[in-house]
Design brief:
Helix content: 55-70%
Oligomer: single chain
Number of strands: 2
Strand order of the largest sheet: 1-2
Radius of gyration: 20 Å
Shape: elongated
Number of helices: 8
Distance between the termini: 52 Å
Number of domains: 1
């Protein structure tokens, strides 16, 4: 807003420090911490499920590893490095909604994971399942949905304008909101199913006073 309404594109470096479409700044750090927090909570659940010999322990582990990868990707902007090679595969010409071409492998990964985790999702308690779906809708709607919209707009009008900035601001806000809702769902799941969770850092072994779900 400051850049396009008032004509100040730096403000002592604060614009780039807080602009959500820039990399390695305050919003990036916040997103990385959120994703890492989700990965940590998923790891806690994985450890507890392993002690219970739960059949879905591998699904929880995959989610934990996936969110850890997402945190690393957010910190290093790895997915954006896919744009050029994917564009080269698509050839010359306008790309429309696929202007940010990393969304193509991104959509493929989401579809594969959705199919793989669908039965696991259906086995979750109703409240947890609903909150997971809300979180996923917010996150994917931002990360992929608005990225498609932003890509089309950027191809036609460029990225240095207020409208594009508003699109990416909503996009990043949806992503953050999705992870926050997911973290809430994980904390609520742990609170509902385990009376207490304790960790012994001398041997890195997770312990729960009651490994059995509450009745």
């Amino acid at each position: 807003m400051t850049k396009y309404l008032l004509g100040h594109d730096r403000v002592y470096g604060l614009v780039s420090l807080f602009y959500v479409d820039a990399e390695q700044n305050i919003p990036t750090l916040f997103s990385v911490l959120l994703l890492f927090c989700a990965a940590l909570l998923l790891t806690v659940i994985t450890v507890l499920k392993k002690k219970q010999k739960d059949p879905d322990v591998s699904r929880w582990a995959i989610l934990a590893f996936g969110f850890l990868l997402m945190a690393v990707d957010e910190a290093l902007s790895i997915h954006e490095k896919l744009v050029t090679p994917v564009r080269e595969l698509l050839g010359d010409g306008p790309l429309g909604i696929f202007y940010f071409a990393w969304v193509i492998p991104g959509i493929a990964v989401v579809l594969v994971l959705t199919l793989f985790l669908l039965r696991f999702l259906l086995r979750l308690p109703a409240k947890t399942r609903f909150t997971f779906i809300v979180a996923g809708t917010l996150f994917i709607g931002g990360a992929l949905g608005l990225e498609l919209v932003g890509g089309r707009y950027a191809e036609l009008h460029g990225q240095e304008n207020m409208t594009y900035s508003m699109i990416v601001t909503v996009e990043e806000s949806l992503e953050m909101a999705g992870v926050i809702v997911f973290i809430y769902a994980l904390v609520k799941y742990i609170a509902d199913h385990y009376e207490e969770v304790r960790f012994r850092f001398d041997d890195f072994e997770g312990n729960s006073r009651s490994n059995a779900p509450k009745t």
